[in-house]
Amino acid sequence: MASPKGAVITVVGSGLIGRSWAMVFLSGGYKVKLYDSQPGQASKAITEIRTQVLELQEAQMLRGKLSASEQLALLSSHDDLSQALEGAFFVQECVYEDLETKQAVFQAVERHVGEGVVLSSSTSCLMPSSVFSLVQNRTRCLVAHPVNPPYYVRLVELVPHPETLHVVMDTARDLMTEVGQAPVCLRKEIDGFALNRVQYAIIAECWRLVKDDIISVKDIDLVMSEGLGMRYAFIGPIETMHLNAPEGLEDYLTRYRFGMSRVLSSFGPVPEFDGEAAARISKEICELIPGDQEHLSARRERRDQLLMELAKLKK
Fold this sequence. Notes:
- This protein is of the alpha/beta class.
- It is built from 13 helices and eight strands.
- The protein has an eight-stranded mixed β-sheet, sandwiched between helices.
- The protein is globular, with a radius of gyration of 21 Å.
- The model has no long low-confidence stretch (mean pLDDT about 95).
- Its EC number is 1.1.1.45.
């Protein structure tokens, strides 16, 4: 692992995720080169990052040991890809979630970096073997899928493809740990990775319960925010099972496995997420939180503030 002092990480793409990754890497003391193919976009992104970093410092929520000014001094914007990649040991791609676009980015990146540079994609749903299929040296490639917003929600999924070297996974895990993220390493690629597979399973059953008029949108969200989510903010489902029976997991399975299987077997088919049900559920949530930008922006700000406070509590 390269030393943070003087080490360079290039972030390709200056949108929301790219800006967040840049802030995370800056907090670890790395020099960050931010690149965007649209002229001037990376420079505009730095202005937004500067505002956020200063606000975080004011709120005493700035990550890392460096001050806001020290972190910002490590950040630069680039419209030229070769300049952005010069000296980098790790590249984090954050462009639009489109397979051909990402493939083209990594082909271009590979032309400007040495064999030892790790190439990482922020994709949330594309298979690593597809994203890196046009790269010549695929052994140094992996997915590092963050959770939005990654500055406050620290989980990052590290997903290999069949040719990814173990040392590359180790390098990425060590880097993510060093900059304060919470990396989880998948042992092989799978559609949806781990987080979205779990998330979609929850969404599907919540959708079915509302669609079948068992419960309202407001109340199913409370099931998570005031129930399961309270536990899951600190412990996962396997530990929950382990703690919820007097003698641990084996005791829990003895007590509940038949009931679990019975309930699970009653689940309906995978929802289509369209038609009358989608219109009704959309109407119901919009009555609680109107879908215009003013209300959505305010609610996102509230979400981020709550996540910031929760991150502080967990720390």
